[in-house]
Amino acid sequence: MLTIIAIDALEHKLVEEFDLPNLKLDHYGKTNISEFSEARTMVLWSSFMTGKNQEADILAKGDKEMWNTKFELDETFFSKFKNPKVIDLPGYNYDLEQHERSRLLLREYFETEDEEKKNEVRKKYNDNAFAHHRIVKKEFEDALAAGHDLLLGYFSVADEIGHLNFGNKMMNKMIYKELDEIVSQVPGDKIVLSDHGMMAIGYYGDHSEYGFWSTNFEDLGNPKITDFREIIGKKYQ
Ligand SMILES: [Zn+2]
What's the 146 CA to ligand 1 centre distance in angstroms? Predict the structure, then answer.
């Protein structure tokens, strides 16, 4: 059994700073995403699951349509497994309504000048992200015991919360510890993978230009996100 803990915007520097053993597993490092013009979530996860750079095709859809990208099982390496389970992955089966709620609250936040209103919207935005996290976490934990040969859980909380609260060290640490705890429950072979990291822009967070990987079975060096299809294919053929 292989479990992939796909974490949006997990930052290599913070994993080191907080020194979280489960996120680091036995081997860890950065992924190389320099083939992409920008670190875009939808582009990176789509390229990961198909093993092919999907940037040009996805950007051609335009900003709004981009989020409706949906690859079929047989276009992804998930189809090489007999009984795969994939939870909430962008470009595959992401909860679009959740994304839309989050996007609208983010826009509302940046459109208002009023500090009190900003705090109110930030709270709503954070609550929405944490509520979604609890749903995904429950589904992931239930799936761990269900006998899948591939389980992938996608966790967006570090990205969503990071965008509006990256300057809040305590909140970052709380989220990273929560993610570390989730990884600790996973038996067997595991890969922790992020699409990109996050860097501070004042109090806010923006995507950094490399991702994060770790495994408990192999040192992968500095892989491209499109290499995972082959890495996993070789190990599980
Ligand atoms: Zn992302």
Answer: 28
